[in-house]
Design brief:
The structure is a single chain. By secondary structure, the protein is mostly helical. It has two domains: 5-189 and 299-332, Rossmann fold (3-Layer(aba) Sandwich); 212-293, Tyrosyl-Transfer RNA Synthetase (Orthogonal Bundle). It is 55% helix and 6% strand. It contains 16 helices and five strands. It has helices spanning 18-31, 43-46, 53-57, 59-73, 90-98, 104-108, 111-119, 127-130, 132-141, 155-172, 212-220, 241-249, 253-265, 270-296, 301-328, 330-347, and strands spanning 5-10, 36-41, 80-84, 147-149, 180-182. It has a three-stranded parallel β-sheet. A two-stranded parallel ribbon has the order 4-5. α1 (18-31) links the parallel β1 and β2 (36-41). α5 (90-98) crosses α15, α11 packs antiparallel against α14 and α12 packs across α14. It holds the Pfam family tRNA-synt_1b. This is Tryptophan--tRNA ligase. GO terms for molecular function: tryptophan-tRNA ligase activity.
Length: 356
């Protein structure tokens, strides 16, 4: 373990799925042994698209899902610090200070923000959503993270963080490391319906917490080559979601190669291809199910992990905010005013009688 830090996380909008695993979680599991790891439960980010009282009421339960899904996937509780974003108000102070280091046109060039607004069925982009990358910069820099493993959608956001860090350091002195982006080998996983990426809001997902039966049912209903109406018709492998999943999750490479060859020759049906995919995905998820059962059996453990992590992180962030205010001269400004106020009070004791 080095003295360098990793920061990443998720919005508490539901359970994690296979797309989360290949997009970022797999890298988190790998990198936790190389970096001091901070994993954010980003409920303030959630408010940019989900901010009803009903949405907010689900934060605590969804936070538990995020943590237990992460632990089941292989994050070790003694190597990672989970924390709830909204419980650290200093992050919002950093967000306010960073807003002045980036322009509106720069934020408007972030393509994923428009996609998020569209997916949330927003006719107009909320101010908070436009500033999403600025708050994300506050998340990353508040613990002075050196690396950020994220999915494809967040690449542009992390670049804005890098720009803000460089701009702050240029204006006020070296306070922040400029974080590096860690990309995934599978940046985006197509949904089971073949229509865009795997997404909770669309429902085309296989969750890390799905049972064997749920996986089989979802795989059976997966989109495949629409022009292949019989098993003896040669099918397309390239771009076929079923084979994309085989390539990612089926560790039996010889089986995958055989299925592809027979599929393209019209010598295997979709039923067999999907059956073997369901088996492969369940084998992939079985170790997670074992770890999940272990953590779920300890009532209150997940809540304790979140509380301890949040308290630890807040102390770290408070120190960083102190450094930021000092570097900017904000602390000095108020201290100067306070010193003159104290002189005035001493010069006018009748107006300020000593209590007691």
């Amino acid at each position: 373990m080095t003295d360098q830090r990793m920061l990443t996380g998720d919005r508490p909008t539901g359970k994690l799925h296979l797309g989360h695993f290949v997009g970022s979680l797999e890298n988190r599991v790998r990198l936790q042994h190389q970096y001091e790891t901070y994993l954010i439960i980003a409920d303030l980010h959630m408010l940019t698209t989900k901010n009803t009282r009903e949405d907010i009421a689900q934060v605590s339960e969804n936070a538990r899902h995020l943590v237990i899904d992460s632990l089941a996937a292989g994050i070790e509780p003694d190597r990672a610090t989970f924390y709830l974003q909204s419980a650290i108000p200093e992050v919002m102070e950093l967000n306010t200070l960073f807003q002045n280091l980036v322009s509106v046109p720069r934020l408007e060039r972030t393509p994923s923000l428009k996609d998020m607004a569209r997916d949330a069925k927003k006719d107009e982009m909320p101010y908070g959503l436009l500033g999403y990358p600025v708050l994300q910069a506050a998340d990353i820099l508040c613990v002075k993270a050196h690396v950020v493993p994220v999915g494809k959608d967040n690449h542009a956001h992390v670049e804005i963080t890098r720009e803000i860090a460089r701009r702050f350091n240029h204006l006020y002195g070296e306070v922040f490391p400029v974080p590096e982006l860690v990309t995934s080998d599978v940046p985006t996983l197509i949904g089971t319906d073949g229509q865009g990426k795997m997404s909770k809001s669309i429902g085309n997902v296989i969750y890390l917490s799905d049972t064997e039966a749920e996986v089989r049912k979802k795989v059976t209903g997966m989109y495949t080559d629409p022009n292949r109406i019989r098993a003896d018709i040669p099918g397309k492998v390239e771009g076929n979601p079923v084979f994309i999943y085989h390539d990612v999750f089926n560790k039996n490479l010889a089986e995958v190669a055989d299925l592809k060859e027979r599929y393209q020759a019209g010598k295997v049906g979709d039923v067999e291809v999907k059956e073997k995919l369901a088996i492969a995905i369940n084998l992939f998820l079985d170790p997670m199910r074992e770890r999940r059962a272990k953590f779920e059996s300890q009532t209150g453990l997940i809540d304790q992990i979140i509380v301890e992590g949040t308290e630890k992180t807040r102390k770290e962030v408070q120190q960083v905010v102190f450094e930021v205010r000092k570097a900017m001269g904000l602390t000095g400004a108020f201290n100067s005013i306070r010193r003159k106020a104290e002189k005035y009070r001493k010069a006018n004791p009748a107006a300020y009688p000593v209590e007691g």
